[in-house]
Amino acid sequence: MVDPVQGPLLAKAIRNTLYIALLVIPLQIIIGLGLALLLSQEVRGMPIFRTAFYLPTVVSGVATIVVWIWILGSDGLLNQGLQLIGIDGPVWLRDPSTVKLGIVLIMVWGGTGGMMIIFLAGLQAMPRELLEAAAVDGAAAFRRFWHVTLPLLTPQLFFNLVIGIAGGLGVFTETWVVSSETGPGGSGSPANQTLTLVMYIYRQLLQNLQVGYASAVAWVFTGAIALLTAIQFWSSRRWVYYDIEN
């Protein structure tokens, strides 16, 4: 028998997961695309900048989170910078009202580089004659991007979207480590604001030993992600362009 308190906790985990995913996924895609456009320019020393922006993706996730815990601490680098301009910053990862924003920042920092590389590969493989033809026709930079560059990047955009949704909904490491700042790892502290679906399943399975219930939630969660992925593949036929001539 499942404890009646688990219903509200499950709803809380779903809300937290959706909140984080709905912020992280667009930010990673938009920032990744913007960085790729900047780093696709032919400028001396550009490989160094590309490596620097990609580096957070290959660094250990836990190590990155620990660094950000220090940056976002009460006496961390961010609050010290805010104090210089007369602003008293919150305790980002201990305050229930700001902890999820801190997790979003950590995830965007760690995941944007991977999306940037995918977009950059698409930009480098793009036929230059199409952009040159648009420029000759008098198209401004934004129109060239919107009508030429972006349609040719839709395969990379689709890939990043699929991976981003799966990663955003499956967030675990960041919330686990951050929650350990105010309680035991996986506790969802503070005030269950870091409790996500994957962490909820973990708690029910390994801490509360509700094996059947945890398995049921996990199967529904897996089915939901599979359904979202299927919808993305179905809808991609209308907006993803693989054939340049068409």
Features:
0% strand; 246 residues; 11 helices; MetI-like fold; mainly alpha
Describe it for me?
- This protein is an all-alpha fold.
- It has one domain (8-239): MetI-like (MetI-like fold).
- Helix content is 72%, strand content 0%.
- Helix 8 (154-169) runs antiparallel to helix 11 (211-239) and helix 10 runs antiparallel to helix 11 (211-239).
CATH superfamily: MetI-like
Q: Remind me, CATH topology? A: MetI-like fold
Order of helices and strands: HHHHHHHHHHH
Strand content: under 5%
- Average pLDDT, rounded to a whole number, is 86
Helix content: over 70%
- Please identify, by name, the CATH architecture: Orthogonal Bundle
Would you spell out the secondary-structure blueprint of this structure?
Blueprint: H1 6-39, H2 46-58, H3 61-71, H4 77-84, H5 99-124, H6 128-136, H7 141-152, H8 154-169, H9 173-179, H10 197-207, H11 211-239
Helix pairs in contact: 1-5, 1-8, 2-5, 3-9, 5-8, 6-7, 8-11, 10-11
